[in-house]
Structure formats: C-alpha cells, structure tokens
Design brief:
The complex is a heterodimer of chains A (279) and B (144). Chain A has 279 residues and is of the alpha/beta class. Chain A is built from ten helices and twelve strands. The chains are: A alpha/beta (279), B mainly alpha (144).
C-alpha cells in the first residue's frame, strides 16, 4: 500500500504544487493517473520513487519512506520514466549489471517478454530505436517482479501492435499483491486496463475512484437531447447525437469513456467533488 | 455440427469488438454466454482462466473476475477452489433465459421502431426470418 500523508510539494517552497495531499493506493489494482500537460503527474511519481522529496508531510510505500532510498525499499519498486535511457551495453551486459538489484528478477520471463514485444536481442541497446528501447525497458521492469511498478506514459513511442502486446503483458503480470500505477494522457491505449482512476489538475486531486464506483454514479451514453431533470457532468455533440455523462438515476451499467470523464471532471471540479468526495 | 460454421463463428467471436455502451464486464459475460450457446464450451467443462481471458481481451483481470462473479450468481458457471471455473450443467437454459429477457428489453424495441418507421409488416419479417434460419442454421443440431 502507498500512503500520502499531508504531502506538500513544490519546486520552490514559495510556490507549492501539491498542498496537504492525503490518499491511499491499494494493492491489487491498476491505477490510471490522468492530467493535462504540466498538471503534476510525473512530480507525483517522482515523490513515490524517491527522486523528489516532499516539502512537508510524507509518502510511505509498504511502510517504507522512498526518500531514505534504502536498498530494501528500492528492490521493491520500479519506475519507468517517459523518456527512457539505455547505456551502450548489450542486453546480456545490461541484465548482468542491473538484475542483481532485484531479488525477484526472472530471467526466463525477461526473454519471453522481449520476444513477445519483438525486441531483437543482438547489438548495443543505445543503437535501438526509441520505441525498441522503451519496449526493452518495459520487458526488464516487468521481469524484475517488483511489488510496485510506476510507469510514466508507457505507450508513448510504441507502435500499434506493441500497444496491444503491452496490454496483454500487463494483464499477465497483474496480481493482488502488486500495484501498477500508470500516468498517461493516452487514455484510449489503456482504457480497459485501468480499474482505479485518479485525475489531477493544478496540483489538486479531483478524482480518486474505482471504475465500478464511477459506473454506479454516472451514466455514459449518446442521446438525442440533453436531459433536463438530472445533473449533467459533460456533453459533446457527436454525429449520432450528443454524448453525455449524466447522473446514473436509472441504475444503468454503462461503459466508461475516460476521455469524456476527464473533460467533465476538469471542467466541473465542483460537481466532481460532490459526486466523488475525496476521503 | 457443420464445421465451416463452427470456424466462422469462432473467428467472429475471437475478434469481438467491445460495444459502445455496455459495461465491459457485461460484455465479457456476454462473450462467455455466446460460447455456451454456440456449444463451443460444453456443460461440465472447465472454461478459460481469468488471467488468460484478460490477456486475450486486453482487459484488467479484475474486470474478468467481475464478469465471472456475475455469471456465478446466475448459476451459469461455478468456481471449484484452486481448480478453476466450470460450466454448470443447467447453464444453457440459464443463459437462454437471461439472454431472452435482455433481447426483449433492449433489442426488440429497436427492431420494432425500425419496422414501424420503414413500414415493414410483421409477415414480411417472418418470411425473412424463416429464410435466414434455413440459410444459417439448418445443418447444425441447434435445438428448437
């Protein structure tokens, strides 16, 4: 479990991005962190992995504080940055150098994932294309078997078949002891993978809810006319009518459209707070 | 069973796209029901595991779990601890009952509306229905 206790963070003490953020992230779920450019998504991830420290308050991951950077903590977490860096090493050299830091690293899975992602095994890693390098890092990260896996825009740079392969890999490695935390604005790439959604804007946590809870409270559909007797979170004109997100008064079980949800929540933060109070 | 039909339906089902409006877990439940109605999965048999179906459909395993819970509540599948999920003996009747209800509630009104708007009399539809069954299902041992 990851806990933020009254965390405040800013790149300067005078201008805080996050103020008194308190939240819990539970094992066994794939979290999707959504936010506009510059909303503070990567900042949040870096506070979790210990490359940035909170100005006030704390983060704890399974009882440990990232900022003390103890090996016992670092071996339980893997962070894939948006822009990956790989040195001029072969895959084998890379594995020999970095895998020993992760006691649960599984070599067979590593090569299986590389094969599934179609990453060629010859030559130096820095000669690979950006997409290939990214897939290499993803395969390595998954093979490390850490309890916490943080990914910043993991589908950026992946071609279409690789995105599907990535989803299959994530489905195959997910289990109830793991936290997979994905920050993205490519919502469609991961729409059916995420089961908990967090939306941040200007350092505010606007939504932190499960897909099931959202579907219970909101109904996503296309209508001929916008209903007048219920709360409307979002409406967008489409070819076949108007796509709306309305209060789910009839108990319909509709599929979420995360793009529309994101727009609705960021445009109507007050209504969002009423519908989904942040505990 | 006519083998070409078996292959055609199987192909179509594996390539099933998610429909726009229905919750994903219900669409997964529907996929399972479809396999049962098409007799691709037999009563008493073990079905695909939660993880494998999640990988196949590129969805969160928790969503497949929710679909399987839903089917279990309706006594269509059963969980044998540590072994996996199995098709209940009376699954087909249960699926037919459940799907009939769904069809009458959600699909028939759309059909009726279009029949009315396009001025298609029920007799005409009945004739076409008969032809469709002859063309598509005649050589299969589909009951009723």
């Amino acid at each position: 479990m990851i806990r933020f206790n009254n965390l405040s963070f800013g790149y300067s003490r005078k201008k805080l991005l996050y103020k008194n953020l308190t939240l819990s992230i539970e094992s066994g779920s794939i979290y999707g962190l959504l936010g506009k450019n510059g909303a503070g998504k990567s900042t949040l991830l870096k506070n979790m992995v210990g490359t940035l420290f909170p100005v006030e308050g704390s983060v704890t991951i399974n009882g440990m504080e990232p900022k003390s950077r103890k090996p016992s903590f670092l071996q339980t977490i893997y962070y894939i940055a948006e822009d990956v860096y790989v040195p001029a090493l072969t895959i084998k050299q890379y594995q020999n150098l970095f895998a020993p830091f992760y006691p649960l690293f599984n070599k067979d899975n590593f090569y299986k994932y590389l094969l599934e992602m179609e990453v060629s095994v010859d030559g130096k890693l820095n000669k690979l294309s950006f997409g290939q390098q990214k897939k290499f890092v993803i395969a390595f990260a998954l093979a490390c078997n850490t309890r916490v896996l943080l990914m910043d825009e993991p589908t950026n740079g992946l071609d279409i078949p690789s995105k599907a392969q990535f989803r299959k890999l994530i489905a195959s490695v997910m289990n109830e002891d793991r936290i997979i935390f994905i920050s993205t604005h490519q919502i469609r790439d991961l729409e059916n993978m995420i089961d908990k959604v967090m939306i941040v804007d200007n350092g505010n946590l606007l939504l932190h809810s499960s897909i099931a809870d959202i579907a219970e409270k909101l109904c996503f559909k296309t209508v001929a006319a916008i209903p007048t007797n219920v709360k409307v979170l979002y409406a967008e004109k489409m070819l076949r009518g108007t796509s709306v997100i309305i209060e789910n008064v009839d108990g319909e079980d509709s599929a979420l459209n995360l793009e529309h949800l994101f727009n609705g929540i960021t445009e109507n933060p007050t209504m969002a707070k009423q519908l989904f109070p942040i505990k | 069973m006519d083998n070409s039909l078996y292959k055609a339906t199987r192909k179509r089902n594996l390539e099933m796209e998610f429909r726009e409006n229905q919750a994903i877990y219900l669409q997964i439940a529907e996929y399972v029901c479809e396999q049962l109605l098409l007799k691709l999965w037999a009563p008493g048999g073990k079905i695909i595991s939660i993880r494998d179906l999640a990988i196949l459909m590129e969805v969160n395993p928790n969503t497949v779990q929710r679909a399987y819970d839903f089917l279990q509540q309706r006594e269509i599948i059963a969980n044998k601890r540590g072994v996996g999920y199995f098709v209940e003996d009376s699954a087909i009747e249960k699926v037919i009952g459940f799907r009939k209800e769904q069809f009458i509630e959600t699909e028939l009104p759309v059909l009726f509306r279009n029949m009315y708007l396009l001025n298609l009399p029920p007799d005409d539809i009945a004739e076409r229905y008969k032809k469709f069954i002859e063309q598509n299902f005649n050589n299969t041992n589909h009951e009723k």
